[in-house]
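Let's sit down with a protein and look at its sequence and fold side by side. Once you have written the record down, we can walk along the chain together.
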Amino acid sequence: MIPVLTPEQMRAADDAALSAVGGGDVFIKRAGHAVARVARTMLGGTYGRRVLVIAGKGHNGDDGRVAAEWLTEWGASVHVLDATEAAGQLIDSRATDLVIDAAYGIGFHGTWSPPLVLDVPVLAVDIPSGLNALDGTVEGGVLVADRTVTFAAVKTGMLFGDGPSLCGEIDIVDVGIDPLDDVSTYLVESSDVATWLPPRDRLAHKWDHAVRVIAGSTGMAGAASLVSAAAMRAGAGMVHLSWRGDASAVTPPTEVVGRALPAEGWAQDIASDIHRFASLVIGPGLGRGDDIGVEVRNVLSTCDVATVVDGDGIGASVDPRAGHSALTARTAATVLTPHDGEFASLGGDVANTDRIAATRELASRTGCTILRKGPTTVIADPDGAVYLVVAGDERLATAGSGDVLSGIIGALLARGLSAHEAAAAAAYVHGMAGSSCASEGTIARDVVAMISDVLTEVAHNVR
């Protein structure tokens, strides 16, 4: 996993490293040389290339000036422009082959006016100047980078808000500054998912990883089908599906056992054989109403099995007084998968631009693992650990995509992963499956079809 630091944590790491060596020149030299190497790669060589370095007065500017020295030594024609004089200048490909943005770093507050850059690639030093390193907001001007060289660790603002669209490709460079022991936020990689996934036992039985799904209702058959199919593709050996409505309301996938729920008291029906299953998924397409809320909370209270609460189940898990007693009383692993609207219905602070802090707070208050959906998915555990997943793109913005995700989580819980590992691994697999689909016209069923291929590739690349 890749450490992700807030600006405050990064400054603490900087201070500790500086005190250990007695000065910062060594880190500036390393950082500047690293920037120069990436610049040389972007230029396809340096001899005769024309480079503009926009340098501020701080350490970011120092990094840029060291990079300028190296590029000059390697044969490039380099001009260093003071960041305070950049406003209003026009930089285009007639005079410049690369712009290095070394104006301001993670400690910058306020606004600045960058030059107008046309048809010239931009390399940002540590973070694009003007991007808030905590939450990814931008209050003034900023240069959109094609590539960013960042030091020691990714900064939170690079993964949220405008950060992903402004940073371009991110290179993490080790300059000898190590994150301190208080790091609790990490970016999930393919190798992490492979490590968490247990290999299939040669003597495995289909009931070893069985998943119970409570999803769907009249008019919402698709949710039930997508959850169940995704769970099967993610490794569930058996899926039993039940839905609200009559027997004809839902047609389960061929491999899934299905039956309608009783009209009333169905929580007791589910609890009667839940011991046969390794996990439970409840909520997608289930419908809303006080009676449904009572049943869902009864299920959560009586079924002591690893559980994913998604879709309509999220609001139903909250009692009429907006309390979380049905959740906090649980002893089995519980994963909630809200989008921002559902996050608010759980009592989460959607107005807080620090999505990590807000999600971590709700996880602590509910005693559940919270998977908060978004372009960067935040998975927060009740103990404070946070995993971030950036796999996937706009192809996942399609009806039923969330149902697919909940099915994957349910299967991974059934395979023995802990709540936060199952949620993080599922978010990664879900994202990669979406990215493997056609760039136009992707639907949720397409994502389901790619799950097993992604899992196979993840496992194969590591093993």
Q: What stands out?
A: The first helix runs from residue 7 to 21. The longest strand covers residues 50-55. The CA atoms of residues 392 and 432 lie 6 Å apart.
